[in-house]
Specification:
Layout lengths: L13 E4 L4 E4 L3 H8 L8 H22 L1 H19 L1 H6 L6 H6 L11 H17 L5 H11 L10 H10 L1 H15 L5 H12 L5 H4 L4 H7 L24 H12 L1 H9 L13 H5 L3 E4 L8 E4 L1 H5 L1 H21 L42 H10 L3 H8 L2
Parallel strand pairs: 2-3
Antiparallel strand pairs: 1-2, 3-4
Helix pairs in contact: 1-2, 2-3, 2-6, 2-14, 3-17, 6-9, 8-9, 9-10, 13-14, 17-18
Length: 398
């Protein structure tokens, strides 16, 4: 029987699961490889938007490796997800309680006065992915492209942080400084407040044109911080409970490959990847550890491993399973009432667990020939919870 097309995303071009290093893209692997063998000009819309999407998601993975907030968030979201799954009996006894996982999950979205953590992450990813993809980046071209891709809503997470900064220093200086200033803010426990303090209170005391050329060490000093305190300089002394099973290992790999000073410069200004000596292997090192692609018609789901995951199959498998298990915790606590979760699995008519949708972020379904009984998600979920997915869902909704 031919494989049905598996569409990983209903509308988005790509999506990153920063807590696991997993990225999914709404294109085939064959198209990806063809495009990245000879990156396109802007006029080639489909190919250029794929390059934008992959660069965008690569930046989100880089943010998890290089910013204290998103790294700590990634640790916390996995720990809280496992608390849900390992103590599912507690959730089933008190179905109305708000879990620590749900509270942590929403931290990225909460806007304080004007901005959220999500706004800072996405603002940088949109801008710096454009700089990586465009042959000759400019502020005017970026603003025109942004208007075409994300029109209208001034409160969009893809627009608001750039516009907030531009209101203070103008659109051209914001083009240069959004990424490094957001990078500084994301080293704090409260990035939106830190960003506002930097922009509203501290930035007027500086010369933006000097900051545009400043090193990361100088930026830290200018705003009363110390680069030596950055997590990348302190990986070896990090407590065991803060050593994320994927992000920590990828951070160590990237730091060892590129050197911490270089990795910090890239973290602050991701578009610098284009200027590095190809012999350093920055692109291969910083590509998302695992990218899953929507299949071509009648073709199976495909994936690409990069960096450390390309050398360690166990790590690559862990990334897939971790993404799926955190997705199960999300379904059990955050999206319990959601009936429109996008599911790409080909076993929708035969699998007794499909309707529960606890597997909605498990991006390695077995083929139709193998059958749903060979699904790794079912095995891993039952191993942690001692319940089958459909049984857990039925008990939660009884």
């Amino acid at each position: 029987m031919p494989e049905p097309r598996i569409t990983l995303l209903p509308q988005e071009s790509g999506r990153t699961f920063a807590f696991s290093g997993m990225v999914i893209v709404r294109e085939s692997k064959a198209f990806f490889e063809r495009v990245f063998s000879a990156p396109p000009q802007i006029a080639d819309d489909r190919a250029f938007e794929l390059v934008l999407a992959v660069c965008h998601e690569m930046i989100h993975v880089l943010q998890a490796l290089s910013t204290a907030f998103l790294y700590s968030y990634s640790v916390a979201i996995v720990q809280r997800a496992f608390e849900v799954l390992d103590h599912l009996d507690v959730l089933l006894k008190d179905k109305g309680r708000t879990t620590a996982f749900a509270e942590t999950y929403r931290l990225l979205e909460v806007r304080h006065k004007a901005l959220s953590v999500r706004d800072l992450l996405e603002g940088v990813a949109v801008l710096e992915s454009y700089k990586l993809a465009a042959p000759t980046p400019s502020a005017l071209e970026f603003l025109a492209l942004r208007e075409r891709l994300f029109p209208g809503d001034s409160t969009s997470c893809y627009r608001i942080s750039y516009d907030y900064l531009a209101a203070q220093i103008g659109p051209f200086a914001a083009f240069d400084l959004l990424a490094p200033l957001s990078f500084l803010a994301l080293q704090s426990d409260d990035p939106p407040s830190s960003f506002q303090t930097i922009v509203d209170d501290l930035l007027p005391q500086t010369r933006p044109e000097h900051l545009a050329q400043a090193s990361v060490a100088d930026l830290f000093t200018t705003f009363g911080m110390s680069a030596g305190d950055h997590l990348l300089y302190n990986l070896d002394s990090m407590p065991q409970d803060m050593r994320h099973p994927v992000v920590y290992e990828c951070a160590r790999f990237a730091a060892a490959t590129l050197g911490v000073p270089t990795l910090l410069e890239i973290g602050a200004r991701p578009a610098l990847i284009n200027r590095l000596d190809p012999a350093l292997g920055a692109t291969e090192t910083l590509l998302p550890p695992v990218i899953a692609f929507s299949s071509s018609p009648n073709a199976k789901l495909e994936a690409l491993s990069s960096g450390l995951a390309s050398q360690d199959r166990t790590l690559a498998e862990l990334i897939v399973h971790l993404t799926g298990l955190v997705g199960a915790a999300e379904r059990l606590t955050v999206f319990r009432d959601a009936s429109d979760l996008h599911q790409f699995c080909p076993h929708r008519t035969t699998c007794p667990h499909f309707a529960a949708a606890l597997c909605h972020h498990y991006f390695a379904p077995p083929s139709l020939e193998l059958g749903y009984a060979h699904c790794g998600f079912i095995r891993f979920f039952e191993g942690r919870t001692h319940m089958k997915p459909n049984q857990a869902w039925a008990a939660l909704n009884a």
